[in-house]
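Internal ticket #5521
Category: modeling
Description: The requester needs a full-assembly model to guide mutagenesis choices. All entity lines are attached below as received. Residue total reported by intake: 378.
Assigned to: D.W.
Attached entities:
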Amino acid sequence: MARAGLSAEILTKAGAELADQVGFDQVTVTEVARRFDVKVASLYSHVKSSQDLKVRIALLALTELADRAADAIAGRAGRDALAAFAEAYRGYAREHPGRYQATRLRLDPETAAASAAPRHAQLTRAILRGYHLPEPDQTHAVRLLGGAFHGYIELEAAGGFAHTPVDPQASWDWIVDSLDALLRARADH
Amino acid sequence: MARAGLSAEILTKAGAELADQVGFDQVTVTEVARRFDVKVASLYSHVKSSQDLKVRIALLALTELADRAADAIAGRAGRDALAAFAEAYRGYAREHPGRYQATRLRLDPETAAASAAPRHAQLTRAILRGYHLPEPDQTHAVRLLGGAFHGYIELEAAGGFAHTPVDPQASWDWIVDSLDALLRARADH
DNA sequence: TTAATTTGCCTAAATCGTTTAGGCAAATGG
DNA sequence: CCATTTGCCTAAACGATTTAGGCAAATTAA
């Protein structure tokens, strides 16, 4: 009987693709096994459980998203950096909806600390350097930006904007502009 | 055999309480049945499916949340209204985490349109009246506020603020202040 | 090259949640 | 008080998760 060449990494990749196709909550070890034409039990040599697979997908997505955001802000500052950062998040969520959903999986504290999640906060702080905010304002601003971008993406994905004839891209640009102005105003004070 | 006095409404209520205790994604017809000391199959006379039960919980939560927000902004305007509105959302999410999670369930368009979801947008527009924003800016602002409040609540619930020693309440107040200033600045233009 | 060991995928079976079909008894109402 | 409706039941199928134990392929060492 030929071997399928499975590994935790390969299963995680496949799970991520499955998530993008059918939604993260529809990811199941059974379906992943089907895609490799392998019996379900075989996956349990590589991942501990269904939950373990989901956590691995979440960690993958967090890393990909942080890499993309880091790329986006490299060589930019101020408003440019903010816009590029925002676009990185929104673009990733559009191209990889299932993976983006995965980034919201609740991780236990140790796993979260060891994940790319802290990098996301660091990247946000990198952008804020251009606005010269004192603490604790900088922390407040990290939370504002994280929440605003994430919340917008989620509402948009949930179809919350479908019943109003205003281009979501126009709203997004307006919001980025407004947040930039907000941060500059806070810097002055 | 005595009857348990079930109904769709009672099951929905129980499901909502269960959600607050164990998380919305852990809500199962099996567990609800257990709580009424009734066989699982009995629930299927009242709800069509497990999904149907979840949708009902989501609709209940959306209504409760809209009612609370409406109460909060009654008799207030401008910054006061904005702060009260924000507090209504955050308070509901803290007191009823499972129900709040339920409000994010993806509903099909008809169900969403018939739900309290449009009321949420209307309430936000009511607040924005105090800022005299022209269209399409008002729509942009609805999306900004919805996204920012929702995103903040979700990041906070996910434990995203745990590793920074800055009081989440202080950040929340700072954000509400900042958004108020942002909206007033946009009104001037 | 072959023997020993590890690794990878298998079969089998238990557990749990969902869902449908069909039945009996309690409530309801003429 | 009899007929009908309603509410909860038993029984059973299905699908996802998970564990135990086995055999064969891959790897390594003699």
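Resolution: model delivered.
Comment from assignee: The two ends of chain A are 71 Å apart (CA to CA).
Ticket closed.
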